[in-house]
């Protein structure tokens, strides 16, 4: 049987019960949208998004030269901490549910504050 009208054109996990005669379908979550970055301080950014599936868990990744920083949430925001000053990251959000994973969100660019130096000494930190 074909199923029409599924959101996001995602693969589904369909289980037909011979006992009840019903088809149970779990739809993979949609890609998180409207990613917003709200820097809290020099080493922390709050990431929020539109959560399209209440049953999903969300993983946020900030990928930069120093590696990957992550946070997780069952809601629509989480905080990434431990970010060094003067770094640039590509931040994405991924939704996961019992039916599978969404596509990764489009990335948003995050640039943490920069240190001001004079003759090799830090004179101010804009972090």
Architecture overview:
The chain has 127 residues and is mostly beta strands. It contains no helices and twelve strands. It has one domain (30-125): Sandwich (Immunoglobulin-like). The chain has strands at residues 12-16, 23-27, 33-41, 44-50, 57-64, 67-73, 77-80, 88-97, 100-101, 108-111, 115-118, 121-125. It is elongated. It starts with 11 loop residues before the first strand and ends with a strand. The model is unreliable at 122-127 (pLDDT under 50). Residues 31-115 form the Fibronectin type-III domain. It holds the Pfam family fn3. This is Fibronectin type-III domain-containing protein.
Characteristic terms for this protein:
FN3_dom; 127 residues; single chain; five-stranded antiparallel beta sheet; Immunoglobulin-like; three-stranded antiparallel beta sheet; Ig-like_fold
Can you lay out the helices and strands and say which pair or pack?
Layout: E1 12-16, E2 23-27, E3 33-41, E4 44-50, E5 57-64, E6 67-73, E7 77-80, E8 88-97, E9 100-101, E10 108-111, E11 115-118, E12 121-125
Antiparallel strand pairs: 1-2, 3-4, 4-7, 5-6, 5-8, 8-9, 8-10, 11-12
Low-confidence stretches: 122-127
Q: Could you tell me the CATH topology label.
A: Immunoglobulin-like
Q: Estimate nothing, just give the exact number of structural domains.
A: 1
Classify the beta-strand content into a percent band. over 45%
Percent of residues in helices: under 10%
Would you identify the CATH H-level superfamily? Answer: Immunoglobulins
CATH class: Mainly Beta
InterPro entries: FN3_dom (IPR003961), FN3_sf (IPR036116), Ig-like_fold (IPR013783)
Pfam families: fn3
Protein name: Fibronectin type-III domain-containing protein
Domain Fibronectin type-III: 31-115
